[in-house]
Amino acid sequence: MAITLYELAGRDASRPFSPHCWKVRLALRHKGLDFETATAGFTEIPGLEGGFSKTVPILKDGDTLVADSFAIAEYLETAYPDRPTLFGGEGGHALSRFVESWTQRVIHPALARFAALDIHDGLSEPDQAYFRSSREKAFGTSLETFVADRAERVEPFLKSLEPLRAIVGKQAFLGGESPLFADYIVFGAFQWARVSSPFRFLPANDPVTAWFERCLALHGGEGKKVPAAA
C-alpha cells in the first residue's frame, strides 16, 4: 500500500519547512519505507483528507490516517515492527516524550524569535494574512518587532543548548552511535530554521552544529535535499 506524507510548504512547494513534518520524514526513512509527499499551505490544511486534521503532518498509509508527529512515529513503530526501531524500547519511547517537551518549550520558542518574519515572507498571500494575524495575536506584537533583536538573542540561545551539547559532544547521536526518534525531534526544529530563514546562529565549531550536520547527512542526505534558505 502506498504511503503519503502531507507536509507544510510556502510559495515554493519544494521547500517543506514544518519541524513536525521533518520529524516524520526522517522517521519514514529510518524505517526504510517508501513514501510520497504532498504539500499544503496553512489555509489549505483543513481541506486535506476531508478535514481529517487541522495541522500537518498527516500520514496516509493505505486506508489509515494518522495526525501528529509523535502519534505517527508510534504508529510506524507498531505497524512496522520488523523495521529499525525508532525508540529502542519503552524506555526510549518515554525519554523521547521528554525530548519533545524540552524541544517545544526551549528550542521552538527561541527559533521563532529568529525566523518568524522570514517564514511569513516565504508564504503565499492567503497564508501570509493568516500567519500574521494568528502569530501577532499569540506574540502580542508585530512580526517585525518580534524578531528585531534576534542578533542579541543568539548567545542566550546557544547557552540554553548546553544539555544537548554535552551529549552530542560525547556521542554521535542522542540515540548513541545511531539515531533514534529523539534525534529527529530536535533535528526537525533546526531544519525548520535552516529551510525557513537565512539567519544563521550555530557556530561552526559547536558540537551541536556537528550533530546537526550528521543528521542532515542521514538516510542518503534526506535533510540536505532541501537547500538552506539564502
Automatic annotation (TrEMBL):
Q: Which domain of life is it from?
A: Bacteria
- Location of the GST N-terminal domain: 8-84
Family annotation (InterPro entries): Glutathione-S-Trfase_C_sf, Glutathione_S-Trfase_N, GST_UstS-like_C, Thioredoxin-like_sf
SUPFAM superfamilies, per database record:
GST C-terminal domain-like, Thioredoxin-like
Q: What is this protein called?
A: Glutathione S-transferase family protein
